């Protein structure tokens, strides 16, 4: 089952001019994968429309989605699931050499986990407000935490990331 078959053509809006030009294509590719994961998670009934991908150098280590419904676990957010799955990898992936791509700005719990896992970089698509606006109130980010962390945080403009919340609304 391909994602394209479920969600139709994917349109990608390029990042704001001047920012991270060199890594822009790469970032769009991995962030698109995270958004596709979010769609998969909803369509197979595992959870809410959130996806997260962990990348080591240029390779995807894990690609995960929200599992709160399947696991009956309110903490099974995509980012948490991705960190746990990456840690289970047999060749001991070093998380501090990895980047996370999250379809949506991580909530306070996930940001705490990302910080503790020492991931070196976070790229996200939709703003937390976009999720909160359609009923995912627990998604509100605590941007105060961002300043306490050393990791590089990039907000990428990717139209499909926010369009998701028009499609999968709780309200
Ligand atoms: Zn979260």
TrEMBL record:
Domain of life according to the entry: Eukaryota
Keyword Zinc assigned: yes
UniProt protein name: CMP/dCMP-type deaminase domain-containing protein
Coiled-coil annotated residue ranges, if any: none
Keywords: Hydrolase, Metal-binding, Zinc
Entry keyword annotation includes Hydrolase: yes
InterPro entries the UniProt entry points to: APOBEC/CMP_deaminase_Zn-bd, CMP_dCMP_dom, Cytidine_deaminase-like
Organism (species): Thlaspi arvense (Field penny-cress)
GO molecular function: guanosine deaminase activity; zinc ion binding
Family recorded in the similarity comment: Belongs to the cytidine and deoxycytidylate deaminase family.
Pfam families: dCMP_cyt_deam_1
GO BP annotation list: purine nucleoside catabolic process
Domain CMP/dCMP-type deaminase: 25-139
């Amino acid at each position: 089952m391909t994602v394209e078959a479920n969600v139709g053509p994917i349109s990608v809006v390029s990042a704001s001019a001047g920012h991270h030009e060199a890594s822009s294509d790469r970032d769009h590719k991995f962030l698109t994968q995270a958004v596709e994961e979010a769609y998969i998670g909803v369509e197979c009934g595992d959870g809410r429309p959130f996806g997260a991908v962990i990348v080591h150098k240029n390779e995807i280590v894990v690609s995960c989605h929200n599992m709160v419904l399947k696991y009956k676990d309110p903490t099974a957010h995509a980012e948490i699931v991705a960190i746990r799955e990456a840690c289970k990898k047999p060749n001991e992936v070093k998380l501090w050499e990895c980047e996370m791509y999250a379809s949506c700005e991580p909530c306070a719990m996930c940001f705490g986990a990302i910080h503790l896992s020492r991931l070196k970089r976070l790229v996200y698509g939709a703003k937390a407000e976009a999720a909160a606006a359609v009923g995912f109130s627990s998604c509100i980010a605590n941007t105060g935490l961002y300043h306490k962390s050393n990791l590089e945080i990039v907000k990428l403009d990717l139209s499909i990331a926010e369009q998701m919340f028009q499609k999968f609304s709780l309200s």
